[in-house]
């Protein structure tokens, strides 16, 4: 609803309860850190978003196996912040980490893979590498066409992204 201060208040209350009742590296704390980071991300306060996303990542790295989906989510969140900040090489580094986990752990037509291919494709487009962008965006479209109903807006978005990149080439 856009009421960021209220969201932060409630997420902070939840975090304080968890900090009093859970061990310091409990994954539930990481969930709270991610929630708070997401609010700051939505507010455009990228340094605060990174601070909380990084706290979540540190907990996950200590407590989860290296290919756990929560690690992929954390890498993706951090990549998204760097993307929003215009630090595309840093964003690519984190999006690549996300993709590596997903390629090892998800079936080849999973929608999360399509999202990762899309994020990386759009990033390559922003960086001016249109042939790489096109390759990733075509993978996005192929997965979405196999896994979504034909009228799903994600398919149209993928086609629009491909057409935009083709015009730039």
TrEMBL record:
Sorted UniProt keywords: Cytoplasm, Cytoskeleton, Microtubule, Motor protein, Repeat, TPR repeat
GO cellular component term of the entry, any: kinesin complex
Lineage: superkingdom: Eukaryota
Placement of TPR repeats on the sequence: 30-63, 72-105, 114-147
Keyword Cytoplasm: yes
Places the protein is found: Cytoplasm, Cytoskeleton
Main location: cytoplasm
Function of the protein: Kinesin is a microtubule-associated force-producing protein that play a role in organelle transport.
Subunit structure: Oligomeric complex composed of two heavy chains and two light chains.
Family designation: Belongs to the kinesin light chain family.
Name of protein: Kinesin light chain
UniProt source species: Rotaria sordida
């Amino acid at each position: 609803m856009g009421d960021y201060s209220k969201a932060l208040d409630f997420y902070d209350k939840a975090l304080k309860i968890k900090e009093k009742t859970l061990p310091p590296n409990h994954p539930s704390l990481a969930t709270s850190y991610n929630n708070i980071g997401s609010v700051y991300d939505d507010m455009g306060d990228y340094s605060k978003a990174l601070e909380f996303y990084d706290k979540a990542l540190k907990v996950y790295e200590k407590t989860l196996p290296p290919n756990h989906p929560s690690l992929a989510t954390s890498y993706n969140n951090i990549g998204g912040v760097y993307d929003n900040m215009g630090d595309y090489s840093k964003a690519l580094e984190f999006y690549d980490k996300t993709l590596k986990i997903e390629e090892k752990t998800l079936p080849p037509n999973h929608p999360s893979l399509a999202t990762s291919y899309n994020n990386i494709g759009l990033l390559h487009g922003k960086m001016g590498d249109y042939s790489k962008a096109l390759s990733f965006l075509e993978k996005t479209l192929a997965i979405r066409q196999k896994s979504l109903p034909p009228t799903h807006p994600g398919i149209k978005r993928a086609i629009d992204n491909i057409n935009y990149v083709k015009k730039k080439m």
